[in-house]
């Protein structure tokens, strides 16, 4: 049962939702198919660090470590997340408001992203574009890569139009009322992404697309990097915020409780919209040409972006405790063990949250200017982001799919037991993997290095000091192969082989202990467009001092193909 919203539910003609469910399923299938390829490659990279070089045997498919790494990063970080998010952030608000979304707009997003993804696959698998997920110039791939990336990015911005249209129609029918929570969170996420995507869109359309076609001869790498990180930092919140939608709006109910505060959820999303944008330069703390004073200011601002996540930790911690106590949990730990751990969707999301505590702590280390000197460009960094995007977000999407596939298709989950096994294996595998990556990073083991290509004695000579943590990396990777296999048996098994459900599965919209009614905070936060405008100004204030000197001293680099 969803929360009842205004009079819309009674007066609106009943919507069948069949077309919407079909398109939502396509978004899920598109996204998770990308993850399937990406996650199959990941363990090869983990084994590389443990000195197992599988690549000579993979020549017919992958020509080099870097071709695989590009496919892994691009499919997981862009294609998987964009598809799932562009589905969820339209479907869920539409269901919350009980209004039909504008289907041509939503299909446009799907179409653009599909064409983009196919072009990217072509460019990566023909070994013309091993430019890694950051596609830093002057590494030069094929036009298919950059145009594919352009279409994928534009496609991911389109859902904003669908959500704003839904919100406007609902507001017209419900004058003076606050936007319901899921729609609010979706709108805030997509408005943030509208500003965020401008950087990469500019880099692609102005710099890289024409350059890849040969229309321009040279490229300025540092301008490219800066525009990339304009997007590349807030993109991590474009990954995270849909997971937060699930944590705030569904998990409390799935766990048997209620969300303790709706206004805190709104505050989190508004703060993420504002703070995500101006801090991308913390990825360039070791880059030349940016004044130390700017880097120090950005380091300070970076700590502010942790704030909404700390609010989230306490709000959701309390909501889970409430659920656990309602289920009979007693004492300091009893509420936690009383959570419905047998429900794979709940287990996935709670384990995702626990992992995220460590991911967040590592992020704060990265953001601290001086400490970043030690960890930058080491395996510490992939260690950090495999427990943020690679687990907190990915495992939340996996958990969400466990109720959503039955909801969309009318079929029961293929096997709850195997679903639980996949989640626990992912949690254990990623914990071991990420511990190894962080630890090896502290010994200075570089990321993005085909270390297993060295003869064993040389590998031991250079990396022997980090041999144990690097073994952990490989072991974690192998466990993750098991997790991936188990998950996809459940995912595709449910889609195509699950038993027909007797009773329909509803979207688990949560109830609140403290709702938004009468909250002054919620009232102020309702002004999403002015908040977006303010964020744009703050972003310009952060980026103009970085970019102007680069435009005044341009460099002209020819393209490189080093693979
Ligand atoms: Fe990061 C690099 C700083 C969060 C992803 N990050 C990366 C890269 C990626 C990434 C992909 O400042 C590398 C890109 C590349 O290829 O080079 N990151 C941060 C900070 C945060 C942060 C300050 N990162 C994320 C998230 C990501 C992500 C989220 C993906 C989804 N990161 C950096 C910096 C770099 C960086 C530098 C550049 C480093 C370099 O040198 O290259 C913060 O937002 C983190 C805040 C999070 C928290 C945790 C809150 C905990 C919660 C769970 C609560 C649990 C409960 C369970 C309720 C403070 C919400 C209760 C149960 C109980 C038993 C208690
Ligand atoms: C990079 C392993 C899943 C996103 C890497 C690296 C390893 C790895 C070892 C570092 C390679 C290097 O720096 O040389 C794995 C394993 C996975 C997995 C074992 C388990 C199935 C994921 C997931 C995501 C992800 C689920 C995101 C949704 C990335 C990205 C990179 C990366 C963005 C950076 C690529 C680059 O440097 O260009 N992965 N990964 N991975 N991984 Fe994963
Ligand atoms: Cu960042």
Strand-helix topology:
Elements: H1 8-11, H2 18-49, H3 65-97, H4 103-125, H5 143-157, H6 159-173, H7 181-212, H8 221-232, H9 234-249, H10 251-254, E1 259-261, H11 262-276, H12 292-305, H13 307-326, H14 331-337, H15 344-367, H16 369-375, H17 380-409, H18 416-442, H19 456-463, H20 467-497, E2 512-514, H21 520-525, H22 528-552
Parallel strand pairs: 1-2
Helix pairs in contact: 2-3, 2-4, 2-17, 2-20, 3-4, 3-5, 3-6, 3-7, 3-17, 4-5, 5-7, 6-7, 7-8, 7-9, 7-11, 7-22, 8-22, 9-11, 9-17, 11-12, 11-13, 11-22, 13-14, 15-17, 15-18, 17-18, 17-20, 18-20
The protein binds heme-as, protoporphyrin IX containing FE and copper (II) ion (CU).
Heme-as binds at residues 134, 236, 239-240, 282-283, 302, 305-306, 309-310, 312-313, 316-317, 320, 336, 353-354, 356-357, 360, 363-364, 366-367, 372, 376, 381, 384-385, 388-389, 393.
Describe it for me?
This protein is mainly α and 563 residues long. It has a single domain, classed as Cytochrome C Oxidase, Chain A. Helices cover 71% and strands 1% of the residues. Residues 1-11 have low confidence and may be disordered. The structure holds heme-as (HAS), protoporphyrin IX containing FE and copper (II) ion (CU).
Give the termini distance in whole angstroms: 54 Å
Strand content: under 5%
Low-pLDDT residue intervals, each spanning 5 or more residues: 1-11
**Could you state the order of secondary-structure elements as H and E?**
HHHHHHHHHHEHHHHHHHHHHEHH
What are the bound molecules? heme-as, protoporphyrin IX containing FE, copper (II) ion
Q: Give Rg in angstroms.
A: 23 Å
State the CATH topology. Answer: Cytochrome C Oxidase, Chain A
Per the principal axes of the C-alpha atoms, what is the gross shape?
A: globular
Family: Belongs to the heme-copper respiratory oxidase family.
Membrane topology: Multi-pass membrane protein
InterPro entries: Cyt_c_oxase-like_su1_dom, Cyt_c_oxase-like_su1_sf, Cyt_C_Oxase_1, Cyt_c_Oxase_su1_BS
Transmembrane segments: 26-49, 69-92, 104-124, 144-163, 184-207, 227-251, 263-281, 293-320, 346-365, 385-406, 418-440, 460-491, 527-551
